[in-house]
Design a protein that fits this description.
416 residues, alpha/beta, 7-stranded mixed beta sheet, two-stranded antiparallel ribbon
């Protein structure tokens, strides 16, 4: 039972760090099966060692399913099975003394690490470690060939820091792997730029000419993602009223209603918003859409609206805080590593602009769901361990109904 629980709880730090539930996160803790399997083989037999390996996989997968209520990905499950198999075989190769621990003697332990079989065990242990390394999700690499052009208009600090240093925000770093990103100051420059895609994130106030230019650019076939926040909460050190701060409320509400949708009053606080397909976005004081017109449809359980504007299209999200890396990234220095994402924000933004990023992550539904998942996973592990104890004790016991042979009686010695 102890090896199963050690592996189960060993995978929790990575899960709690990002909220992602991936069986590959338990592969490094599964290396604990190497010594555990060796000891079980010496004390209970080879069958007991395999029993613990199977129970470990079952316990981990039951926790992963109950925490997300989604079946784990086949690729992740295959990697976990390969790692557990290699660790179990490695443990079976070592010959641990059956009475190890009662009285330590180097002479008893030398055979456990000497010989061809033990060298093979070491090789399988290294194989299990290598599998856990290669199973990691790869970082995002730039798309080969020519990339589509993406223009960005925003009042948010996406291309510079508050101290004036030029630096890309993590979301821009990710988008540069799929697009040729170029900041633009005004919609009047869209026609000259020649790009076919636009990210419009909480911009400053537009003049009437700029609004007309934006509507005309989209109507001619442009594709835009608009992040219009009715209550921006992006943390900044600049005082209120500073011209460098982005607008606290969206200034595009009239244009959005002109396209065919209307925003409701914003909610308060940070929320994890699950889309209909299982993806999750972390939003802050976001609004939802209602009363979609004939050219619009509301998606993402009310968070986004997609409208046709002439020959072009626009996706509108009633929140701009969601691209703040503090709401979707565990390690600010690793935006290109999907394993460090805490939400599907980069994938959602890239998809809305017509690009592809790794998808299919499973997320913890809630803190209560995780507690329940761990509780039932422990129950599964205890049941499996108890069943194995009964099974292998019966196998080790002597057959019932047979009495042990009686010792031969010595024949009486006849005196001379």
């Amino acid at each position: 039972m102890a090896p199963i629980l050690l592996v189960l709880f060993g995978g929790l730090p990575a899960l709690l760090r990002t909220g992602q539930v991936d069986p590959r996160g338990w592969m490094v803790p599964a290396l604990l099966l190497v010594p555990a399997t060796a000891l079980l083989r010496a004390r209970r037999g080879e069958g007991a060692a395999w029993w613990v390996g199977v129970g470990t996989v079952g316990t981990v997968l039951s926790c992963a399913f109950l925490a997300t209520w989604r079946v784990p990905g086949l690729v992740s499950v295959a990697w976990l099975l390969a790692g557990v198999l290699a660790a179990t075989v490695a443990g079976l190769m070592f010959r641990v003394p059956a009475k190890a621990g009662t009285q330590f003697k180097w002479s008893d332990w030398v055979p456990a690490f000497a010989g061809t079989r033990q060298m093979a065990g070491l090789g399988f242990a290294l194989l299990a470690l290598a599998i856990s390394w290669f199973a990691r999700e790869h970082r995002i690499e730039p798309s080969p060939g020519k990339r589509a052009e993406l223009e960005v208009i925003s009042g948010l600090p996406l291309f510079w820091r508050e101290n004036g240093v030029k630096a890309d925000a993590p979301i821009i770093t990710v988008l540069r792997q799929r697009f040729d990103v170029r900041p633009v100051d005004s919609p009047l420059a869209l026609e000259k730029g020649g790009a076919g895609m636009l990210l419009l994130a909480q911009p400053r106030a537009f003049s009437l000419d700029e609004q007309v230019a934006l509507d005309a650019w989209i109507g001619k076939g442009g594709k835009a993602l608009i992040l219009a926040d009715p209550q921006l909460r992006w943390p900044m050190d600049w005082p209120l009223g500073d011209r460098r701060r982005p607008p606290a409320v969206t200034l595009l509400a009239a244009m959005i209603e002109y396209w065919g949708v209307r925003m409701t009053p914003p909610s308060s606080g940070e929320q994890r918003h699950f889309l209909g397909d299982g993806r999750v976005l972390t939003i802050y004081s976001a609004a939802v859409f209602e009363n979609a017109g004939p050219d619009c449809r509301i998606v993402g359980r009310g968070l986004a609206a997609r409208c046709m504007v002439g020959k072009g299209s626009v996706t509108i999200v009633a929140d701009a805080d969601l691209i703040d890396d503090r709401l979707w990234l565990a390690d600010p220095a690793a935006p290109l590593e999907p394993a460090q994402w805490t939400a599907d924000t980069p994938q959602f933004v890239a998809e809305a602009l017509g690009a592809l990023l790794p998808a299919g992550r499973r997320w913890v539904r809630s803190g209560e769901a995780l507690v329940n998942a761990l509780r039932w996973a422990v129950v599964v592990g205890i049941f499996w361990a108890a069943l194995g104890t009964v099974l292998f004790r019966r196998r080790a016991a002597a057959p019932s109904g047979l009495s042990p042979p009686r010792p031969d009686r010595p024949e009486p010695v006849k005196e001379g």
